[in-house]
Design brief:
Layout: E1 2-3, H1 10-20, H2 32-47, E2 51-53, H3 54-61, H4 73-84, E3 85-86, E4 96-100, H5 107-119, E5 129-133, H6 137-153, H7 155-158, E6 162-164, E7 169-171, E8 177-181, E9 193-199, H8 208-214, E10 224-229, H9 238-250, E11 259-263, H10 289-304, H11 311-316, H12 331-335, E12 348-355, E13 362-371, E14 374-384, H13 397-402, E15 406-409, H14 416-426, E16 430-438, H15 442-450, E17 461-464, H16 466-481, E18 485-486, H17 491-498, E19 500-504, E20 511-515, H18 524-533
Length: 554
């Protein structure tokens, strides 16, 4: 049986009513993104010729009897939209689903039910294989093991319909299979998935493994993707892209292209101090008294020591919180460096900075200019292909290469002439009265820089000492807090910045910059920026309005 009216489908209307009546008559609060989601879904039904397969939905819902739980209203809502709503041409209207909820909401249980339904005898799809993917095997097995345990518990009845081992589950009628997968991309050739799940997306730093699975979709009818996750500590990774895309869809800025974004989080971090707001990141909390009590306990611990209990905000409230004792600045402040900019005027005054720590690893250089209170930084990175650290680095370096911000050097070391030549090219755009770099690396660069007129004798070289960096730290900190530091759309600079921490200097008492992790989290671009910032007073602020920012070309 088919219907076009979502109001006739309890699995949809019940949750719509909960959101539209939030805060009234005992109905728990929900976040602004849920309110926007309901408006988005209703608009889709009003403007498109969509059908809901209610007969199929009823059969699927009947499978709940095999599980130790019944789906909450929000789970029934997303399941119906993802699995039982179709376009006029018969294809799924929402083939891609993102579930972004707090820890304990039951996302893995939901995924187990959804996958069980998709391969069950009630499905009309044959050989509709489901691959559950995660960055670690233990996580990839979570929903798989939930289904395995259901089959074991109801073995006498379900053995007629399924066969299963601890690595594969198959429906006898549809011949559809469920397997769990991890990040060993070499084992994924020849996949013919009908549906791909990505569990705990926050752990994915790049799209490399995701692409392997998603490019296999389309060989079977009705391809689907399900992303489930809480928040996490990987900045500028896959999750940030998905969240940004989701918010733009719900704000009406871009077309959804079949993407259904279910986002639950605090509207503002200060809301954490009112218990009623805890239902915003976790729509299941009202039904889970033990989880509510545990959340109260963790909240008190977080109040006592926010740095050591930062998981409370990140996981329970779905609001990313770094460790305030080690992070350079908040991720929101780092993202605020992504500001639109305009072309520079000819021969503007700028200062240059270089970080050239290891000749067989990474090196960075950049130029710094101003617009009012804002400082604008453009960088270039060189990476030695002989670097022993490359296998450890998860950041997608080739994306920075495509953006023109990085150059791979296929040689035993990075020649100083490469960096000096790039500085020389910038002199065609800017007047550069000063170049700053660490004094203990000046000897390596001295001869190459001299060819472009940068010498200690000409007084246009600043040999930066640790005390110089410490002095400029409060200025950089203020720049981040007031969103006056501009990188443009430079993902690699955001990565460099996020890899840097501040620690108290034992010698000077103030903060100094250090790497968070020495091998896999590089900081070269940020340290080149710091070097240039030690000379920022040489750049006049009156070069332009604060509303007009320069766009640098490589």
């Amino acid at each position: 049986m088919l219907t076009t009216n979502y109001r006739d489908v309890p699995e949809l209307q019940k949750y719509i009513d909960l959101v539209e009546n939030e805060g009234k008559n005992g109905v728990k609060k929900c976040c602004k993104w849920q309110k926007k989601l309901i408006k988005f879904v209703k608009k889709c039904f009003e403007n498109e010729n969509l059908t809901i397969d209610t007969e199929q939905l009823k059969k699927y819902m009947g499978l709940q009897k095999y599980f130790d739980f019944e789906l909450f209203e929000w789970e029934q809502f997303v399941f119906t939209l993802h699995c039982c709503v179709f376009r006029e041409d018969g294809l799924p209207r929402f083939p891609d689903l993102l579930i972004f909820v707090a820890r304990g909401a039951g996302k893995n249980g939901y995924l187990a039910f959804e996958d069980f339904a998709m391969i069950s005898p009630y499905s009309n799809l044959q050989q509709y294989d489901v691959d559950i993917c995660a960055t670690a095997e233990e996580q990839a097995r979570t929903s798989f093991d939930d289904i395995y345990n259901v089959l074991e518990k109801h073995r006498k009845k379900l053995i007629k319909f399924f066969r299963w081992t601890k690595s594969e589950i198959q429906c006898r009628k549809t011949r559809s299979k469920i397997k769990y997968r991890t990040n060993n991309a070499k084992s994924k050739d020849g996949l013919r998935s009908g549906k791909v799940d990505f569990d705990e997306v926050h752990a994915y730093e790049s799209y490399d493994n995701i692409k392997v699975f998603t490019t296999a979709l389309g060989k079977k009818p009705h391809p689907r993707r399900t992303y489930i996750t809480t928040n996490g500590d990987v900045n500028d990774g896959v999750l940030d892209d998905l969240i940004e895309k989701a918010k733009k869809i719900l704000d009406g800025e871009i077309e959804d292209n079949g993407f259904l974004p279910f986002i639950c989080m605090l509207d503002d971090p200060e809301e954490v101090h009112v218990e009623e707001n805890w239902h915003k990141p976790n729509p299941s909390l009202q039904y889970l008294p033990n989880l509510l009590e545990e959340t109260r306990k963790e909240y008190k611990e977080w109040l006592e020591n926010r740095s050591s209990s930062s998981d409370f905000m990140t996981k329970r409230m779905n609001w990313r919180q770094g460790n305030g004792e080690v992070e350079l600045t908040s991720w929101d402040n780092i993202m605020a460096t992504k500001q639109e900019v305009e072309p520079p005027k000819a021969r503007e005054i700028a200062v240059a900075g270089i970080d050239y720590t290891k000749i067989n690893d990474f090196a960075s250089a950049g130029v710094l200019t101003k617009r009012g209170e804002k400082v604008v930084w453009k960088q270039k990175t060189w990476v030695c292909l002989k670097s022993a650290d490359l296998p450890r680095i998860k950041y997608p370096l080739h994306e920075a290469e495509e953006a023109g911000e990085l150059e791979f050097v296929d040689a035993p070391e990075i020649a100083p002439e490469l960096i000096a030549e790039w500085i020389g090219e910038q002199m065609g755009f800017y007047s550069i009265p000063m170049l700053a770099l660490d004094d203990y690396r000046f000897a390596l660069m001295k001869q190459a820089l001299a060819r472009y007129g940068f010498t200690y004798e000409n007084k246009n070289i600043k040999l930066v000492r640790p005390s110089d960096k410490i002095k400029v730290e409060p200025i950089i900190d203020s720049g981040f807090r007031n969103h006056n530091i501009v990188y443009g759309d430079s993902s690699i600079m955001r990565w460099y910045t996020n890899n840097t921490k501040k620690v108290k200097s034992k010698k000077y008492g103030n903060y100094e910059y250090q790497k968070i992790e020495a091998k896999s989290r590089k900081t070269d671009g940020f340290f080149a920026f710091v070097a240039a910032m030690t000379q920022h007073e040489l750049i006049p602020e009156q070069q332009g309005s604060a509303d007009v920012l320069p766009l640098f070309t490589m």
